[in-house]
Write a structure and sequence with these properties.
Elements (H helix, E strand, L loop, with lengths): L7 E8 L15 H11 L7 E9 L3 H13 L5 E5 L10 H6 L4 E2 L1 H14 L10 E4 L2 E6 L3 H11 L3 H8 L3 H17 L5 H4 L15 H11 L15 E6 L3 E2 L9 E2 L2 H11 L6 E7 L3 H14 L2 E5 L10 H8 L3 E4 L11 E7 L2 E8 L3 H19 L8 E6 L11 E10 L2 E6 L17 E5 L13 E6 L4 E2 L11 E8 L6 E3 L3 E4 L1 H11 L5 E5 L12 E2 L9 E2 L3 E4 L13 E8 L15 E5 L11 E4 L3 E6 L6 E6 L9 E2 L10 E3 L7 H9 L4 E5 L4 E6 L2 H16 L6 E3 L9 H5 L8 E6 L4 H4 L2 E7 L4 E10 L2 E8 L4 H19 L8 E6 L10 E10 L2 E6 L7 E5 L4 H8 L4 E7 L11
Parallel strand pairs: 1-2, 1-3, 3-6, 7-10, 7-11, 8-9, 11-14, 15-17, 16-20, 28-29, 36-37, 36-38, 38-41, 42-44
Antiparallel strand pairs: 4-5, 5-6, 12-13, 13-14, 15-19, 16-17, 16-18, 18-19, 21-22, 21-23, 21-39, 24-35, 25-34, 26-33, 27-29, 27-30, 28-32, 31-32, 39-40, 40-41, 42-46, 43-44, 43-45, 45-46
Length: about 900
């Protein structure tokens, strides 16, 4: 019999008067039972096992025994795991029901669970759980809380397959299991004493604080370009996972839980930056040595670059650096960076199967993880992608003074705006804690602040360095948008007689007038609900408010000790000894903690719940160990070296987000940080503006097909999210209904390319705009089909300049409007440093836009480099004279694409 292929059938029986399998009510949701199912079916905590039975019964002796007997006697399950009903309450009768049924006791299993549980909390001694065998089924009682049941199952999970094989007398399975167990024992990584003996850990990090400049230089040294056999750049595969016992995926989440936001957020930041390599999300990895070793090995087998979040500080569960150094023999190039937020950021390299791997270990706090992704990961990925500019840094004028600088250089979330040729930066809030995702909302850059040792404060109007993290706020309207140089012809189809009424030309109209006609008069916005994880780039249809508190319990913001501080005038480090009575780590259930009394403390990790009675947290660096257990593993007493403060290093309930708090405004563009914020409060779906479905139809002429192909490519480059379909050339079209009979019902916008003379006849309200000097020619209008408005756009046979101008001046702004964007066209002032005598005057010209030395510059006019449309004036003599005098002159430009150094294009 093949041990690997044998399925162990598991039954999960939840015993509780208040818990149900239903997910409709968070308060009664059976989190413990569902968590066990996930651990077995998804995480494979019991090898070759699968949950085949699940039910909830009340705390009733007869009902418990009846369900256990049914599953066991009918051979429905090989292992029955009960959860709940093992305490001291009069309703807790699970052990009695089990003892009345089993034929053999298995005291070793119960004892193993008790021994390991007591290491975590003395409250474990209050459990009366038992285990035994009935018929051919192993029954094990587990506690009722999700955390405790998971911890207890992990103690015995690896022996369950062997136990089942013995019960079923499957000798071959037993033999194979022993063989596998021997192999695992010989090859299993041994947890170093520096990890297991918490009391012996250093009070301060062994890694020096490295400057940002030095850290980036190290990354630059390891950013090696790789090429394929065809001499093209090979983009490394990236794998991302979050670590933490406290983390729950949004699909499995319930009230008072901490959801994984980082793994999705980091992946989306890479997607937003258009990284071309494969990016995998591994989700959540638990904070234990063996799981980390296994998942890192899987990651190294599947990717070149690994990005983790969490587990890099100095807490009890912060094991990543130890695993990489001790188990994988890696080289840690830096383990701390002198910055705020994100000081524990770590960069590691190692060889795995003769291939070099690169690991970025980011802090677990979501803001720290997001900031460090932008400051470390993206520059590295841009380097290995062959980009010349790897950090999007600009200079901007500070709009307000800043006082109270930190001792470390700080990267503060801020808003960058472009107004009348200048960049301005302002901080949106002083609440910049690394857990506060709200500090990212409305921000688009990281403001670089010096340490307090260099500056006492910063005055308003100081020129500051900023790093862009998304599009620049643009409040400048170029005069060219309001120049009256377009002729507009309006043609309307009469409702009854179908006669065509042709109105006279409206001369001297401008681009803004046309955009107003297109957006306000011919389109009705539509919405849809989509999963939050798929909403990047969409626009919110309505405001979002929180349905939860974050954090859901008082939590520590430092690794240290939670104490009950009595504010006295006679504080002395020599007389302040505290006995360590429990441990609180991220993932500890708040209701399982004992109350902290005066003179007691709990060792606590960042993000862990504050025990009852505690009113502040003393960071580990401000303490010293007074006594420890004989084996050196446990701290028994500590002294506090610095007088604490009430509520110091504590996040109160709802201090980040409170129930009912406004989170996001209507028409907010959803990016990685906005989505992470929604995920953090359990928002699975969101209502957004729907992107229209577009059908491109080339008509009658072969050149029309070339136009349609170019148009489709331009829309794809612009990251248009709606359905986009381009059909083959339609020749000899003589009947309108024949052309559109299969299009009307499915598409919102129809773009006709080429000579289609019936366009005016069938569109109810047709407007045609034209300016041959500026190379603009576009028709647009609408018609109603089965109570559905269909928008028509028409581009005739014209050269590529006409197509480029029409797409960027009219079509893309119109599509942005339909998807809820507040701003639909971006214009700026640029400095020109090239002569214009060879260029046609009084027209739009494609050009390359760069940012250098505090200015946006037009650097060239070529077909190969196009990122803006520049308005060439009617006379270039004055401009060229200035250039001869080595003076730059200003030109207005419409931004059409991003460059390597800025984001301003929508």
């Amino acid at each position: 019999m093949d041990f690997e292929k044998t399925t162990i059938r598991v039954g999960i029986l939840t015993i509780s008067d208040s818990r149900t399998p239903s997910t409709s009510d968070i308060n009664s949701f059976d989190s413990s039972g569902h968590n066990l199912i996930k651990l077995i079916n998804d995480s494979n905590v019991i090898k070759s096992a699968k949950v085949v039975q699940y039910d909830c019964v009340t705390d009733d002796f007869d009902k418990i025994q009846a369900k256990m007997s049914e599953w066991c006697s009918e051979r429905k399950v090989d292992v029955l795991l009960s959860t709940g009903g093992t305490g001291f309450s009069s309703r807790d009768v699970t052990p009695e029901a089990t003892l009345g049924l089993v034929q053999k006791l298995t005291p070793g299993i119960s004892q193993a669970i008790m021994n390991e549980s007591l290491k975590l909390t003395p409250m474990a001694m209050l459990s009366r759980a038992v285990s035994g065998i009935y018929e051919k089924t192993l029954i094990i009682n587990l506690p009722g809380s999700a955390k405790a049941s998971k911890e207890c199952l992990s103690v015995v999970a690896h022996t369950i397959p062997h136990a089942v094989s013995l019960i079923k007398d499957e000798k071959e399975i037993s033999k194979q299991f022993h063989k596998q167990l021997d192999f695992t024992a010989n090859n299993k990584s041994r947890v170093p004493e520096c990890v297991t003996k918490i009391a012996c850990r250093p009070r301060e990090s062994q890694f020096p604080k490295m400057s940002m400049k030095s850290a980036l230089n190290i990354l630059k040294e390891h950013a090696v370009l790789q090429y394929t056999e065809n001499n093209k750049i090979k983009y490394p595969a990236v794998l991302i996972f979050s670590t933490g016992d406290e983390l729950i995926s949004i699909k499995d989440s319930y009230g008072d839980c901490i959801r994984d936001t980082n793994s999705v957020m980091i992946k989306q930041i890479l997607e937003q930056d258009h990284y071309k390599g494969q990016v995998f999300n591994f989700g959540i990895v638990r904070d234990n040595w063996d799981d980390l070793c296994k998942h890192f090995e899987d990651a190294f087998n599947n990717a070149d670059i690994i990005i983790t979040s969490g587990g890099v500080s100095m807490g009890e569960k912060d094991l990543i650096k130890h695993v990489l150094k001790e188990h994988f023999k890696s080289k840690i190039h830096f383990g701390r960076v002198n910055m705020k937020p994100g000081m524990p950021t770590t960069f590691v390299t190692l060889f795995f199967k003769d291939t070099k791997k690169y690991i970025f270990c980011l802090p677990g706090n979501p803001v720290s993880a997001g900031v460090c992704t932008h400051l470390f990961v993206l520059p590295y990925l841009r380097s290995v992608s062959g980009k010349k500019i790897i950090i999007h840094s600009l200079k901007a004028k500070l709009t307000h003074p800043i006082n109270g600088l930190d001792i470390r250089p700080e990267y503060r979330r801020a808003l960058l705006k472009y107004e009348n040729g200048e960049l301005y930066v302002s901080c949106l809030t002083n609440h910049q804690q690394s857990s506060r995702l709200l500090s990212f909302v409305g921000s688009n850059c990281l403001l670089h602040l010096p340490p307090s040792s260099e500056e006492a404060n910063i005055e308003s109007s100081t020129i500051m360095d900023v790093t862009l993290i998304k599009s620049i706020e643009n409040t400048y309207i170029a005069p060219i948008l309001n120049e009256t140089n377009l002729s507009i012809e309006i043609i309307k189809k009469q409702g009854i007689s179908d006669n065509i009424k042709k109105e006279e030309l409206l001369l001297f109209s401008c681009i803004n007038d046309v955009l107003h006609l297109m957006t306000e008069n011919i389109f009705e916005a539509k919405t849809k609900n989509i999963p939050t994880d798929s909403a990047m780039g969409y626009v919110l249809y309505s405001p979002v408010y929180s349905s939860e508190n974050l954090p859901p319990f008082p939590a520590s913001i430092k690794d240290g000790y939670a104490i009950k501080y009595i504010n006295e005038d006679c504080w002395s480090p020599n007389s302040n000894i505290f006995n360590v009575v429990q441990v609180s780590v991220a993932g500890t259930a708040p209701d399982c903690q004992k109350e902290i009394k005066e003179g007691e403390c709990a060792r606590i990790s960042t993000g862990a719940p504050l025990p009852p009675g505690a009113n502040c947290v003393v960071q580990v660096e401000d303490t010293a160990v007074v006594s420890k257990s004989s084996d050196g593993k446990v701290e028994l007493a500590i002294s506090i070296l610095k007088e604490p403060k009430l509520f110091e290093n504590v996040r109160s309930i709802g201090s980040d987000i409170s129930v009912g708090q406004h989170l996001l405004d209507q028409k907010t563009v959803l990016g990685p940080f906005e989505i992470a914020l929604l995920r953090s409060v359990g928002c699975e779906n969101v209502q957004v503006y729907k992107c229209p479905s577009i059908h491109i139809i080339p008509c009658n002429d072969n050149s029309a097909y070339a136009i349609s192909h170019k148009l489709k490519n331009m829309l794809e480059v612009a990251d248009f999210k709606g359905n986009l379909f381009s059909q083959l050339l339609c020749k000899n079209i003589t009947n309108f209904s024949e052309l559109f009979k299969n299009v009307f019902d499915y598409d919102d916008v129809i773009i006709i390319c080429g000579s289609f003379f019936e366009f005016c006849d069938v569109v109810e309200s047709h407007i045609h705009i034209r300016n041959d000097t500026r190379k603009i020619s576009l028709g647009f209008g609408r018609m109603n089909h089965n109570e559905k408005n269909v928008v028509f756009l028409h581009i005739g046979i014209c050269d590529s300049d006409y197509i480029y101008n029409c797409v960027h001046l009219f079509i893309l702004p119109f599509l942005r409007f339909t998807t809820g964007r507040k701003k639909i066209i971006s214009s700026i002032k640029t400095k020109c440093n090239v002569t214009l005598h060879n260029l046609p005057l009084d027209k739009f010209e494609k050009a390359e836009l760069d940012y250098e030395n505090g200015d946006f510059n037009v650097t060239c006019f070529t077909m190969n480099r196009q990122s803006c449309l520049v308005n060439i004036p009617s006379s270039a003599d004055k401009m060229n004279n200035k250039l001869k005098e080595e003076k730059k002159t200003e030109l207005d430009a419409i931004v059409t694409e991003n460059s390597d150094s800025y984001f301003i294009y929508y």
